[in-house]
Backbone:
């Protein structure tokens, strides 16, 4: 069971989360019921072609035990107050089962897709977290709102716009990152850290954990103050055709991540730094469908968990079992419900005695 020597092995079985991925909002309830039937412990939203918060209005009403988390909401496309309102409402609606997960996105997306300002991302995110928590304190305690940071200033909160204290408390805050500076900020400030899917064991061991430790130390905290989730791409299928499609789509997903500048460091850590400029150039030439062909079997194995359905659970536990609290299964293809259910059961059973 892979472990990080600095962090004690979590005591509970790994909780496995499924993605709330859909094409039409009208399909959300059916998708939620499917995820429940599979046996997922939680449901996460991916902010791609739809809003990351809205589907949870439906999910919160049609689940009883599943934890709901945004993995991750694009923080800089919003402001602290809008995020605080959305998170507070979902925490109330779900009866305390919501985690506000945030990430930065890349500068071109923030400026060109969302038409929002960019800045020093780590400083802005620290400011964002400080502002959200100041707003939450005002709502919970009634103390005057007076937050004045470098990017955000919130000094007005009239009674008409103030929610009643949330009986479940403010939702935990999760931060996703890949670079060491943002990862250090998560160790210092966040309740949860989520390891993004474009990471290898080597990168997590050599970059992520040292940065988290530095952040924890700076914040006067210990590993007991931070929980860790990990997103993981898997490639599997119930038959030969489904397996082949899963491999092809996973290769493309890896290539897409690898084409993005902020993820180049993960390729560099494995000695594949020369691949990033090739992939990046292919995106500029709209050669999207060809990108996956550059991903070798070895790259696929490093960045994803690949195998027959009965192999996936044991491989996930081997890779993540010594250090994660939650595991988010990620696919860009339709994973058969019976396969997903087996994976969830295998992970849960194999980590039932963790920490003992």
Residues:
């Amino acid at each position: 069971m892979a472990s990080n020597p600095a962090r004690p092995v979590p005591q509970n079985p790994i909780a496995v989360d499924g993605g709330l991925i859909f094409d039409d909002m009208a399909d959300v309830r059916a998708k939620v019921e499917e995820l429940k039937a599979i046996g997922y412990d939680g449901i996460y939203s991916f902010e791609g072609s739809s809003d990351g918060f809205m589907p949870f209005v439906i999910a919160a009403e049609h689940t009883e035990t599943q934890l709901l988390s945004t993995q991750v909401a694009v923080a800089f496309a919003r402001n602290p107050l809008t995020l605080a309102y959305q998170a507070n409402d979902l925490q109330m609606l779900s009866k305390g089962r919501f985690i506000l997960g945030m990430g930065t996105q890349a500068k071109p997306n923030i400026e060109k897709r969302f038409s929002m300002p960019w800045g020093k991302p780590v400083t802005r995110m620290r400011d964002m977290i400080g502002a959200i928590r100041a707003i939450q304190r005002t709502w919970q305690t009634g103390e005057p709102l007076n937050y004045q940071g470098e990017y955000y200033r919130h000094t007005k909160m009239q009674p008409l716009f103030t929610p009643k204290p949330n009986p479940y408390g403010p939702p935990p805050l999760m931060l996703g990152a890949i670079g060491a500076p943002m990862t250090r900020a998560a160790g210092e400030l966040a309740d949860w850290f989520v390891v993004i899917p474009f990471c290898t064991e080597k990168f997590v061991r050599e970059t992520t954990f040292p940065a988290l430790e530095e952040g924890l130390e700076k914040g006067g905290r210990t590993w007991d103050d931070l929980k860790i989730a990990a997103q993981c791409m898997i490639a599997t299928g119930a038959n030969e055709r489904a397996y082949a499609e899963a491999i092809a789509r996973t290769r493309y997903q890896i290539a897409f991540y690898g084409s993005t500048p902020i993820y180049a460091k993960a390729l560099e850590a494995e000695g594949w730094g020369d691949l990033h400029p090739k992939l990046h150039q292919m995106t500029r030439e709209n050669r999207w469908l060809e990108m996956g062909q550059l991903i070798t079997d070895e790259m696929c194995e490093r960045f994803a968990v690949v195998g027959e359905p009965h192999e996936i659970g044991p491989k996930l536990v081997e890779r993540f079992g010594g250090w994660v609290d939650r595991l988010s299964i990620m696919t860009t293809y339709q994973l058969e419900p019976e396969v997903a259910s087996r994976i969830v059961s295998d992970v849960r059973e194999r980590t039932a005695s963790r920490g003992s």
